[in-house]
C-alpha cells in the first residue's frame, strides 16, 4: 500500500483495551532515553485515555518520574533531543511540573 509507517509509536484501541504499535526501524534510530519516554507517552494515551499529544507527554513524564525513570539528567537529555526552547517540550514540562492541588485547597490562616 501507499501508507508509510510515518510514526515511531502509536496506541490503538483494540476491543476493550489498547495495543501499542512500534515502528522498529524508527525506534532503533532514537537514543535509549527517548525509547523510555515514548513508552511512557504511548502508555499515557491508553491510561488517560487521550489523543492529545502534549497531555500524553505530560502524563507520561509524570509516570516516568514516579517510576524513577526520569529526573534532571534524563530530562536534560530529553530537552537536548527535542530542543530546550521547543514549544512542544516546554508545554510538556509546564504541564508535568504543575502540582495537582486538591479542589478548593487553600492555606489555612496562621494562628
Structural description of this entry:
- This protein is mainly alpha-helical and 111 residues long.
- The chain is built from 5 helices and 2 strands, in the order ββααααα.
- It has helices at 24-28, 32-47, 53-66, 72-82, 87-97; strands spanning 9-14, 17-22.
- The protein has a two-stranded antiparallel ribbon.
- The protein starts with 8 loop residues before the first strand and ends in a 14-residue tail after the last helix.
- The mean pLDDT is 90.
- Low-pLDDT segments: none
Mean pLDDT: 90
Approximate shape: globular
Helical content (DSSP H or I, runs of 4+): 40-55%
The helix/strand class is mainly alpha
Structure annotation, total helices: 5
The N- to C-terminal Cα distance equals: 72 Å
Fraction in beta strands? 5-15%
Radius of gyration: 17 Å
Annotation, overall tally of beta strands: 2
Q: What is the chain-wise order of helices and strands?
A: EEHHHHH
Give the biggest sheet.
2 strands, antiparallel
Strands of the largest sheet, in order across it?
1-2
Per-chain topology:
Blueprint: E1 9-14, E2 17-22, H1 24-28, H2 32-47, H3 53-66, H4 72-82, H5 87-97
Antiparallel strand pairs: 1-2
